[in-house]
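Ticket #4471: structure export looks truncated?
Reporter: QA, pipeline team
Priority: medium

Steps to reproduce: submit the single chain below to the structure queue and open the exported record.
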Amino acid sequence: MGCEGWSHVKKGTALNISSSDVILLAHAAFGVLGCLTAFWVFVETLNARPANAGRIQAAALLTALLMTAGWICGGYWYVHFYPHEKALILGGPWPFAHNFFMETKEHLFFVVAILAFLLPITTRERLHSNSAARTLVLSVAGLIVVTGLSVEAAGAIIDHGVKIALLQDALKGTHSWIPQSLQSLRN
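Actual output as written to the record:
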């Protein structure tokens, strides 16, 4: 894609991507990839046989590693960058984005952590011949997918809470960076 896809960016200007943006996007990306690899474990386990036992174990380990990378990025971002955004959210029209969704996310993270570390352990059994072990792996992997995607959705709501707070603040004053169409909404 050439410059025509970026027609809203003036020539000679650089996109302003901060380290906070990179860390937050890495946090979300690692989380989604961890959910996808947990889903991979789930599907492979449905068809467990000796031939795919190695793939199941590798995908389970990859799930734990991806989730760990997501937690490290998220924890760093939470400590260093979230306090400012928390203040914006609490002062904006969507305080529930923090009060409910961030508080819930802070607790569900532990569930996903325990399950992600448990998954590689549960895949060590002979899943093709042990229906109880297969059921356990399916349950753990399924819970990672559902809980992990719920945490991702909560993160999207939290991010939207920040955007709404910034937009509300911007519409109260005249800022040169606000498009003219948004300034006209103020009047």
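Status: closed, not a bug. The export was complete when the record was re-opened. Leaving a note from the reviewer for reference: The two ends are 38 Å apart (CA to CA).
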